[in-house]
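Notebook entry, cofactor series.
This is the third protein in the set we're modelling with a bound small molecule. For this one the ligand is zinc ion. I'm keeping the input format identical across the series so the outputs can be compared line by line later. Sequence and SMILES below, as received.
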Amino acid sequence: MTRVPAIRVFQQPASRLALPRAGGAILLLTALAACVPGSRPPGAGVPLVVIVIVDQLGSGMLEAIQPQLAGGFARFLDDGLRFPQCEHDHASSVTGPGHATLATGMHPSRHGIIWNEWHDRARRKDVSSPSAPQEDSTANFDGSAAVTGGYMQGETLGDLLKRADPNSQVFAVSLKDRSAALSAGRHADGVFWFNARSGGFTSNPALMPRLPGWGREFWEGDPFEMSFAGVRLPRAWAYPIRPGARPDDDPFESDALSRVSPHPIASARALRASPWADWLTLMLARQIMASGHLGADAHTDLLVIALSATDYIGHEYGPGSQEHLDQLMRLDGWLEELMEAADAAAAGGGGRAIFALASDHGVLPLPERVAGGRRIDEGDLERRLRAAAVRALGEGDWIQAIVGPHLYLDHGKLEQAGISIAAAARRVRDEIARLADVARVYDAADLATQVPGDEHQRLQRNAWRPDRGGDLVIQECELCLLTDDPTGTSHGTVYAYDRRVPLIIMGERIAAGESAQPCRTVDLAPTLAAVLALPRFESPRDGRALTLRGVDTPDQPK
Ligand SMILES: [Zn+2]
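Returned structure with ligand:
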């Protein structure tokens, strides 16, 4: 058995703070800010805001293991204001749209990140959501293709903070490029993500002029050779078998990296599907806090930490697996250390940190392990979609691209054939609607106006726009996993298991407990903007400031 590091790997802060539990009188920070002398910077006296986004943390996952949690997650559950069934108010329950929505408080139809990729008709090529809009954009510092998040439109919370107070610092860090680049905004001070090919973290000159000297080992080092507080990354992931999760060996788990403990970590790529992907990300987050002196003065700093390992592990083994449970248990411990460091940093700035916990989407359990679940062969469905287009329009290769749920007809060919795009889309739509495994299919006309009471149509509409979306949007059946893989699982649908996530906000004067208030993930950015008493966003938001336990948040960011 490979020996693995103990969960607690970071050294304690020099003087550990004994923080009193939140609770008692409910005071609105913004009301407090009104009493603050005009000489103080914006931010309501909060030195540091830390947003933790756990990729693929479905609603109820933490509560299910709450008795076993004792670290950072436990602190969120005990001391935070919880919105346990918050919803992504859009159908595209994947990483890019989820992070961009949390950052901006707008729907994908407005921030423009409609899916992780989409198809550019004119250039006849797919576009990756975090990439740079210009072909001639400068490569990342490690030479990889440019990532700037430049396709995202609208002001982020970080951008608003920088506009209100240029002395505020804004950083985002993640294993995934899209999760970092779509969390920060145009005016961030630093944005970092991991390149599994090089084994280092990197960024892009459009996001920051150069990689800081203090993080050289993160940019250039071999992650397996790095050590932090004397601990190195292990070359295998071993864990104890715990009650409350499925047996370790399940034939529907991926066996690419073994189905049972210990899982080899033979490469930086394999590292992604192990808890140490998050450990590494949190190490860099700690380094950013320390070297950037975050929280050290009255200017509010923002750090967004997007943790990707739960997603990679969930895809391979599914929620409820021993792997998934072990991941959350380890993350619980590491998060506590991160939060203690943030508390200490904020104390240096004369205040308390605000923490938020959110997720970009949920997930379907392994379909074989959920009643009514099943796999649908993705290649076979694509063949059936193409045949449906031929039945609707006659012989021809009418489909230019299929990206996620988006089907793009070939407008040039339709024009040559003298068929209007709208008429073609309607005819293909009606054929596809007859196919097995397809719950619904929408064309542009279906998404043009809101149909009262049609919830799925509304959620699809929030996730689509004419310049990036397909001519048709296909919605698979509920509990159906569209995949070419006989193992593992995924997400991306309009259904509750993919859209529902926890949202927890915690800080001084924010009373702990569970809120029954309806919550959407578009509400996070406006809520934090209200808590920090920031000025209005540059344009109206789709989200609104949530009420913090019985007290109306101000008539502010809209
Ligand atoms: Zn994700």
